Amino acid sequence: MSDLQEGQVSGLILIVDDELLQRLPMRETLEQSCFRVMEAKDGADAWDLVQRECPDLVISDVVMPGMDGFAFCERVRRREEFKHLPIVMATSLEDEASIERAYRYGATDFITKPINWNLLGHRVRYILRSARTAQNLADRESELLQTRIEIIRRLGQAAEYRDNETGFHIQRMSYYAALMGEGMGFSTQKQELLLHAAPMHDVGKIGIPDRILLKPGKLTAEEFSIMKTHTTLGAKLLDQEPSLLLRTAHTIALTHHERWDGAGYPNGLAQGDIPLMGRICSLADVFDALTSRRPYKLPWSVEAAVDEIDRNSGSMFDPAVVHVFHAVMPEVLKIKEAFSDPV
Length: 343
Ligand SMILES: [Fe+2]
Ligand SMILES: [Fe+2]
Fold this sequence. Notes:
By secondary structure, the chain is α/β, with parallel strands linked by helices. The protein has helices spanning about 20-30, 45-55, 70-75, 95-105, 115-160, 165-185, 190-195, 210-215, 220-225, 230-235, 245-255, 275-290, 300-310, 320-325, 330-340; strands at about 10-15, 35-40, 55-60, 85-90, 110-115. The protein folds into two domains: about 10-135, 3-Layer(aba) Sandwich (Rossmann fold), CATH 3.40.50.2300; about 165-340, Hypothetical protein af1432. It has a five-stranded parallel beta sheet, with helices on both faces. β1 (about 10-15), α1 and β2 form a beta-alpha-beta unit. One fe (ii) ion (FE2) binds near residues 201, 202, 230, 256 and 257.
């Protein structure tokens, strides 16, 4: 954005109209209201200027030769960086169908023709002010999301540090999980959700005593039953959270040790009753554990780990997830390589 400073509403306005006799009085009026103005005679011209000059607001005619106002609006909205660019359509009052259509294509507001030149400056100032507020809100929201992602990542890492696992374990397993999500047809947004929530799967280990968590030998039955509570402890830590990201992390922490056959913990859920995110993370977690070096074992080869997962398909793992795991194996191997543990 150009000179949209705090407390001051001015800016660069792009006028799009094929008729010079419409553009001229509009330019004059807006310049008198202290706006800077650019002109385009059709949608294609306007699109060029939007990309080059990043105007603060566009006022566009609807009917124009070549790329009309609707097509222009649609083109602009397809680009993420112009999602919040205010586009005001100038159209005739009675043309309700055009107004409805323009809203669908992403227009922000309308001014009706014939234009009331006395009010134009006020109107544009008002729309710019609203757009600036919306942009500030969007910026703050994205900052908040980034903060949440970072907190999740660090908390997940804190839990891993207490365990024998390395910092790379959560990175690898989260990427494996996101790859499987993609293979299962998740939207990009859902894949990202999985990628950022999976690092919390073992956060409940923060509450497990060292004598159990760090015990080199086999756990007794009693110790194992305490160890199992890392799922419910993690879920408790993430309980009642309003953000979708932390709610997903809650689901994964609670269900990543459930088994397809119902013999898992903590709730003995089976098959479709286990949330898909939990089923995916379960496989990602086990594959990475098998193929990693731990103080008590050497890393398994990929082939041996895949054989083990295949053997447990339908008992421990959801067969559909195992199927997708095979399909994304080339990418899984790239991640394994990129985040390999230091020797
Ligand atoms: Fe776990
Ligand atoms: Fe893990």
